[in-house]
Amino acid sequence: MKGHSTAPLVTVVISSYNHGPYIEDSIRSVLTQTYPFIELLVIDDGSSDDSVTRIRALQAEYGFDFRVQQNQGLTRTLNDALARAKGCYFAPFGSDDIMLPERIALQVEYMEGKPKVGICAGNIELMSADGRSYPASRQQLDVPFRRLDFDDLFLGRKPYTPAPTLLFRTEVLREVGGFDPEIRLEDVYIKLRITHAGYFIDALGVPLARYRKHETNTYKNLGFMTSSVLKIYEAYSAHPLYEEVRSDFINSMFLKSSNRDRSLAWKLLKQLPLRRWNGKTVRGIIRLVLPKRRR
Questions:
Q1: 105 pLDDT band (50/70/90 cuts)?
Q2: Signal peptide: which range, if any (predicted)?
Q3: Residues 92 and 13 sit within 8 Å (Cβ to Cβ)
């Protein structure tokens, strides 16, 4: 799809790795956006399932850019796509998620004329692996509009901005050097990087995508999440509240791992000085030392 002289082109990048059951829905949700000026780049990053066959069938029908490569990892793949992106805006999108039809149109309309907004985001609808929507009680569809600067993000002062909804200003993404190939948790890294450079993240108070929850979601790998976030935070160790932010995060991951990964939990507890203990620390310790009640 091509841009228009008066409408900005948006580059959407889908990097696929063994998401055969989901990849077609993800691609079709981009192809059916109400905003017509989209450059779709699809990359298969070394899948061993039937993803390539499925994508090629769609490519034959719609003619988008598709490349197959040996596994390089998401951040390297995104940097390669950024180097050849023609769009004024850049949207990395999960190969297991679904864009709502008005997503790109709403974000482009909002971003135009706001050069200090480096990223536009929104809310998400949660769905199960088979595409069924979660009950309303477990959704966060109505989180109101929020503007986040670096401290809002680093200190967790405002509701988070979900990765499946991020639309970047391409020139800003290039200005900060793109993604770090050594950091696989790309959304946390790049949001902090861009806001630290003085730009805002504006999150619209409407759902823009459907996020698919399944067994291979990154957030379920507690060890990976912990090591990645702590590595990202190290870049901001000069911040006056760095130690507090770091300890709060370790406490949260300690509590989560206390009933899911006991080995990780003990390692995290050793990293917490006594002065940084809080209610989460105590709850996690109780989980570790008291046997579960038999049902």
A1: very high
A2: none
A3: yes
Angle, helix 74-84 to helix 186-196, in steps of 10 degrees: 50
Give per-residue pLDDT as tens, 113-143: 999 999 999 999 988 888 787 777 777 778 8
What six digits make up the tokens of 289? 């030392």
* 10-212: CATH number: 3.90.550.10
Segments making up each domain of the chain, as ranges: 10-212, 221-289
Looking at residue 11, its amino acid is T
C-alpha separations of 17 from 6, 50, 94, 214, 234 in Å:
35, 10, 10, 14, 29
Tens-digit pLDDT profile for residues 178-211: 999 999 889 999 999 999 999 999 999 999 999 8
User: Residue 217 — pLDDT band, cuts 50, 70, 90?
Assistant: low
CA distances from 272 to 2, 193, 239, 248 (A): 53, 26, 19, 10
Alpha-carbon span 103 to 8, nearest angstrom: 15
Tokens of 273: 């000085």
Distances (CA, A) of 30 to 21, 81, 279: 17, 16, 44
